[in-house]
Amino acid sequence: MTSSLFEKLWQVHVISELGDSEYLLNIDRVFLHERTGSIALLSLEESGRTIASPENVFCTMDHIVSTRLGRNDNTEMPGGEKFIQATRQAAERAGIQLFDLTHPDQGIAHVVSPELGIAQPGITLVCPDSHTCTLGGLGALAWGIGSTNAEHALATNTLRVQKPKSMRVNFNGTLSDGVSAKDMIIHLISLLGTAGGSGYAVEFAGEAISNLSVEARLTLCNMAVEFSAFTGLVAPDEKTIEYVKGRPYAPSGEQWDKAVAHWQTLHSDPNARFDQEVNIDCKDIKHSVTWGTSPQDAMPANGQVPNPDELQDISSTRREAMQRALQYMALTPGDDINSVKIDAAFIGSCTNSRLSDLRLVADFLRGKKVADGVSAICVPGSSRVKREAEAEGIDKVLIDAGFEWRESGCSMCFYAGGETFGPNKRVISSTNRNFEGRQGPKTRTHIASPLTVAASACAGFIKSA
Amino acid sequence: MEKFITHTGIAAPLLRNNIDTDAIIPSREMKTVSKLGLCDGLFAVWRYLDEKARIPNPDFILNQPGYADASILISKRNFGCGSSREHAVWALKEYGFKCIIAESFGAIFYRNCIANGILPIQLSSEKIDQILRHKNNEIDIDLRSQKISFAGESVVFELAGNDRESLLEGLDPISSTLQLSEEINAFRNADQKKRTWLY
User: Which of A65, A231, A283, A423 could form a disulfide with A133 if both were Cys (CB 3.0 to 4.6 A apart)?
Assistant: First the structure.
């Protein structure tokens, strides 16, 4: 019998079938953060229940923490320290590993869990955070849940899950120069829409995926939720195994060999069946940037802003949404996107803040300067990434170019920490969501790859490298 | 958890695609480590002309005559997409919403609705239009017969059997799962022998 990667991952974890496509799945690891994990821990305590396997539960501080140098528990958001302190105390009472503000491994949940080897191929990992799908890049079955379901996973080592359908997206051929995983996923979402993956576990496959680094695969899977997918997946290969090897929580010795033997079975068999299959020709993928307020509102980074009145085959709701987005973003149809002036540039987030992203940015910025009037900030994805980048002198290159260099956290990916570039400010951002108000009230967000962010920062206008 | 069997209420149309959980409750409105105290922040950006002073925006549906007491929300595609924050559901619930009708839902939001006793109903755009044509905004929802009735008309909807049972009975899924402890332990003991590196 032939199976897909998703089917294999699913079957390993099925405890029982509950009927009507609902299954009880074994959950191998749970990750929490101070924004939504705190409430799961407190609510669990209130119910008088305990964590079934505290050794498999990890917690970080990332969402609302300050990313300014010399930070402490105080946040720019009034009262944020209450979340931080409640999380710290609840984690201690529960006896779970906490990557606290001053811990050397503190960072964004989905950056920390792969770099420490907590996320591994073949495991189920859940976190009350929608971007948990990032970890599918390693071949883990990982997805975001709410706080109540996090409580369920903590109390029982299991979750009740409606089995999703399966989709495979084949990225055929090779990418053009400088086109990145970020451009690939934006391209897919703009092609099929933000609801395109609704109800599916999506495997990304094909030559271009094999050629991606593991960190780039994490970027790709990160935005599976922006495609409304249950999760994204990439089959683990030799690159993945090499990536996991030697990390602090990765298996070692005899256990390592057994793990690798299992991971090597985790791929879709030839002739595996999928409920839907999509083929994408990589030569159609350009440096992309979003123009609107949904990740599907994307365009080539050297194109013209689309005109909803000229599009024939769209619904009236979509036309209204486009008009509303253009108004929010203060753009006019037909505008050359390269003539759109920016106020700020942000490099960070669970999408694009890993060492490979920062290396790419530093290579581009070496000897260049951020344009006058552009506020540029780089926030490494974890404290470890920050240290490693500093050891390579990346911080110096960025600072010399005019970027501010920060402590790790989610930072200005969204307004949770209370920091924003300001109303009506136009930001080019290596993040994952361009929703209205996502980066602060009335802030205008253009999502792009780190390279496009760096190039735009130097140009002062939206521009690809 | 409170049971959902039938509900009669005012349906407020909020007819946009992709209403994300940041729009349902902005992050800055999640001020305490609690599931409560969130309903003032519901749809804050759209609902208020001045968020800080809480000056209502008269154009927003819930500020319009006859809709302040709405308990059913009607929307379009991909309602509740984006962030996993359960605060979006807690805020809707605290405001008084019992049911959300949409063409489709964000997956995590959908699960969060079920976990909190709110009924998410997925309907085709044609059926939604049929409800919207009806001018008297009060509609009846019966989960037992999976039927929405209004002005002598009705449409049927589908809900996965377990979710339906969970809402009808007001079940606490953690308690239900803990009753399966023996089966869970047997699975994990066997799994521990196979995937030794994870235990």
Answer: A231
Q: Per residue in A170-184, pLDDT tens?
A: 999 999 999 999 999
Domains A5-164+237-263 and A288-459 share a fold: yes
Identify which of A227, A243, A205 has the alpha carbon closest to the alpha carbon of residue A4.
Answer: A205
Q: Which amino acid belongs to residue A262?
A: H
Residues of A within 8 A of B114 (CB-CB) are none
Contact B83 A130 (CB under 8 A): yes
Which CATH architecture is the domain A5-164+237-263 placed in? 2-Layer Sandwich (3.30)
**Residues 148 to 167 of B: which have CB under 8 A from any A CB?**
160-162
Taking Cα atoms as reference points, which of A160, A311, A169, A288 lies closest to residue A227? A169
From chain B residues 115-134, the ones with a CB under 8 A of any chain A CB are 115-116
Domain B6-171 part of CATH 2.40.128.50: no
Tokens 């009607």, residue located: B74
A13-63: per-residue pLDDT in tens?
999 999 989 999 999 999 999 999 999 999 999 999 999 999 999 999 999
Q: How far apart are CA B15 and CA B5, in angstroms?
A: 26
Q: What is the rounded CA–CA span in Å between residue B140 and residue A233? A: 42
Identify all chain B residues contacting A438, using CB atoms and an 8 Å cutoff: 22
Rounded to the nearest 5 percent, the helix, strand and coil shares of chain A are: 40, 20, 40
Question: What pLDDT is stored for residue B62 in this prediction?
Answer: 97
pTM value is 0.97
- pLDDT value of residue A78: 86
Give the separation between CA A318 and CA A308, rounded to whole angstroms.
Answer: 9
